[in-house]
Amino acid sequence: MHIREFNSVLSHANGTATNASAVALAGNADRAYLLIQNQDAAAYVYTRTDGSAATANGACLRIDPGKAWEPKVVPTGNITLISNGTAVYHIVYA
């Protein structure tokens, strides 16, 4: 098992997820950290990490209002997001 040392500067991205899938963070083979926070009080954010379009159904990970997702295995593909409304999100990555 290879454990990757994390000594990167954290970067931040903010945006609004709507009912149209969009790339929120471009793919990066060297990505070492990822956290996606749904800052909305009511709308869900659905995310997909393989570069495919996000959909508001079981094919994507749902992030509930006010919650965050911090994967233990960091995906390196495009991060796409969609919402069942208009949801503000915040991404922390390295």
Write a brief structural summary.
The protein has 94 residues and is an all-beta fold. It has no helices and 8 strands.
* Proportion of helical residues: under 10%
Strand content: 35-45%
- Total E-strand runs: 8
**End-to-end distance:** 21 Å
Q: Mean of residue pLDDT?
A: 93
Shape annotation: globular
What's the structural domain tally? 1
Low-confidence stretches: none
Instruction: Spell out the helices and strands N to C.
Output: EEEEEEEE
Q: Describe the sheet with the most strands.
A: 4 strands, antiparallel
What's the gyration radius in Å? Answer: 13 Å
Structural class by sheet pairing and helices: mainly beta
Strand order of the largest sheet: 1-8-3-6
Number of helices: 0
Please give a structural write-up.
The protein is mainly beta and 94 residues long. The protein has one domain (14-93). 0% of the residues lie in helices and 39% in strands. It contains no helices and eight strands. It has strands at residues 11-17, 22-25, 34-38, 45-48, 61-63, 68-69, 79-83, 87-93. The strands form two sheets. Strands 1-8-3-6 form a four-stranded antiparallel β-sheet, with no helix packed on it. A four-stranded antiparallel β-sheet has the order 2-7-4-5, with no helix packed on it. The chain starts with 10 loop residues before the first strand and ends with a strand. 24% of the residues are buried.
